[in-house]
Design goal:
Distance between the termini: 43 Å
Number of domains: 2
Low-confidence stretches: 391-412
Shape: globular
Largest sheet: 7 strands, antiparallel
Helix content: 40-55%
Strand order of the largest sheet: 2-6-7-1-5-4-3
Number of helices: 11
Radius of gyration: 27 Å
Strand content: 15-25%
Length: 412
């Protein structure tokens, strides 16, 4: 199955907007209640071995089962009897909220995320199922809401059906994210040694250095607007919290952050398409960008959002049938791309690679990109040869290009 997400701007009437806001408030109550119920059950099953709490204790019977997703979903029926505001919200929307809580706990246990927190505000809700197409003309029909005007700036592709709609309340207005689905599947790109290749080195001094000796400077999305953001935050500090002027100042700050996000995302897509125009195989380093976000240059790292860029590049590459591979990042800046000799560790202010063995001199980041390309071509060559052996094809083996020589291994 092929799944795509299309985002559109919607313009609800004042009465419809009031209803949507009430539903979001109800979703927040359900989310926090489900989270508190799980949190209380967990705390009732643990305590210090040498002391008891002097304030309170969570007294829950020992035979009480853990309030998992299915238990809390069944409890929604009982909750509607004592909470009339929940009756107005579609049942499937509330079930999706319970699913969010379950997903947060699964991410906490399985992926090492932090313990789920209570929400001050929920900005989105999901309508997971539609019997018919909710988009007709320039309107979208939502359950218990009715027809809402939609800016259908791009039509739904032929053969796709709307399976799910997420309503999002942003600083600039209301939006819907439509998940559309079609039969079939997008095949993964297949590597071939006859394809053109490109190695990419990501960094801070220069955003991208390619193996073709091209350097792209790093744009400064947040830093360029930092003075404006500080000015708005200083004005917010002088306002009375909760007043109308305070809410207006908060909205201006939120709109500025949303603008920065949109500009950054637009640049990510344009840069990804630009790189995919140059080659049919792209190789990048396998980097844990979370560590970059905690280092000395964390502000610059989070400003560009390297992890989000790699995700978008992966999406664009698959869409355009470009093979993308992540290779080992170790010693890319310490290896000579001409003779594969380890030149030793370089200081950050040393931006030129100069090999003492062969005399090869080039920009440090470009040299790293060339090493990345060589490692990628070597991995692709091994994949192609293994595929030939697995299929039992006879004939002559394909030889690797001269630029894909194996780099010298070092003990780490």
């Amino acid at each position: 199955m092929i799944n795509l997400n299309y985002e559109y701007r919607i313009y609800p009437e004042p009465s419809q907007e009031e209803t949507l806001l009430r539903w979001l408030f109800a979703c927040r109550k359900v989310y926090n209640y489900c989270l508190a119920e799980r949190k209380d059950w967990i705390k009732s099953r643990k305590s210090p071995v040498d002391q008891c709490s002097l304030v309170n204790e969570y007294i829950i019977p020992g035979d009480t089962k853990y309030p998992d997703y299915y238990y809390q979903k069944r409890q929604l029926t009982e909750a509607k009897k004592t909470n009339p505001e929940l009756k107005e919200v579609p049942s499937q929307v509330l079930q999706e909220v319970v699913g969010k809580v379950d997903k947060a706990f699964r991410s906490f246990h399985n992926r090492g995320y932090g313990f789920p927190r209570f929400r001050k505000r929920i900005r989105s809700m999901v309508f997971p199922q539609f019997k018919t197409n909710p988009i007709i003309g320039n309107q979208i029909k939502l359950p218990k809401i009715g027809d809402i005007k939609i800016n259908l700036h791009r039509p739904i592709p032929e053969g796709f059906v709307v399976k799910q709609v997420q309503v999002v309340n942003k600083a600039s207005g209301w939006y819907v994210i439509c998940t559309i689905q079609s039969e079939g599947d997008i095949p993964d790109p297949i590597p071939d040694l006859s394809y053109s290749s490109l190695g990419i080195d990501l960094g801070f001094s220069s955003l991208i250095a390619t193996s073709r000796n091209e350097i792209i400077d790093r744009p400064k999305f947040l830093i360029s607007l930092q003075s404006k953001l500080k000015s708005l935050q200083r004005k917010l500090k002088d306002k009375v919290k909760g007043s109308n002027n305070w809410k207006k100042a908060c909205k201006k700050i939120a709109q500025l952050h949303e603008y920065i996000h949109r500009v950054r995302k637009d640049y990510h897509f344009k840069l990804s398409h630009y790189l995919c125009d140059q080659a049919k195989m792209i190789f990048i380093e396998a980097i844990d960008f979370k560590s970059w976000g905690r280092g000395m240059l964390r502000k610059h790292s989070l400003d560009f959002a390297f992890g989000a860029f790699v995700e978008i590049l992966t999406l664009v590459a698959k869409k355009r049938d470009v093979y993308l591979l992540k290779v080992d990042k170790d010693y890319t800046s310490q290896t000579c791309p001409n003779c594969n000799t380890l030149t030793g560790k370089k200081d950050l202010n040393e931006r030129i690679h100069s090999c003492s063995e062969c005399g090869f001199t080039i920009n440090r980041d470009v040299a790293a990109a060339m090493i990345i390309e060589q490692r990628g071509l070597l991995a692709v060559g091994q994949t192609v040869l293994q595929s030939v052996e697995d299929k039992g094809y006879g004939g002559k083996e394909q030889s690797l290009p001269s630029s894909s020589r194996r780099s010298r291994k070092s003990n780490s």
